[in-house]
Write a structure and sequence with these properties.
about 130 residues; five-stranded mixed β-sheet; GxxExxY; GxxExxY protein
Length: about 130
């Protein structure tokens, strides 16, 4: 368990570095999908295993139900990255990522809002439990 957390912490630094690179290149004002494609590219260039738009079922009474949830990015099956391009982050955005972390039984998630002048202002690190 501790090794997974160490790896997740390491990956969060790599993800944030790549996200900052994307923001430096593109700036604010684009659609979330553009940032997602560019961050996916950056992470793959760094040799990181990453998947985008990963289906996340809800388990209800032991049955997996597809309710349309999609993880923006799942990095090495350890870190969920939820991307936004909104004026301000709202509590519902945090709740969404925390729910994904619980459903996936993962420890670490990053909520990244690209619609900010300096990306550091738009990054929120969330821990499940």
């Amino acid at each position: 368990m501790e090794m997974k957390r160490d790896r997740a912490n390491f990956l969060s630094g790599v993800i944030i570095g790549a996200a900052i690179e994307v923001h430096r290149e593109l700036g604010p004002g684009l659609l979330e999908s553009a940032y997602e494609a560019c961050l996916l590219y950056e992470l793959k260039q760094k040799g990181v295993r990453v998947a985008s738009q990963v289906p996340q079922p809800v388990v209800y009474k032991g049955i997996k139900l597809d309710c349309g949830y999609r993880l923006d990015l799942l990095v090495e099956d350890l870190v969920i990255v939820e991307l936004k391009a909104v004026e301000i982050l709202h509590p519902i955005h945090t709740a969404q990522l925390l729910t994904y972390l619980k459903l996936k039984n993962l420890w670490l998630g990053l909520l990244i809002n690209y619609n900010v002048p300096v990306l550091k202002q738009g990054i929120k690190r969330l821990v499940n439990g």
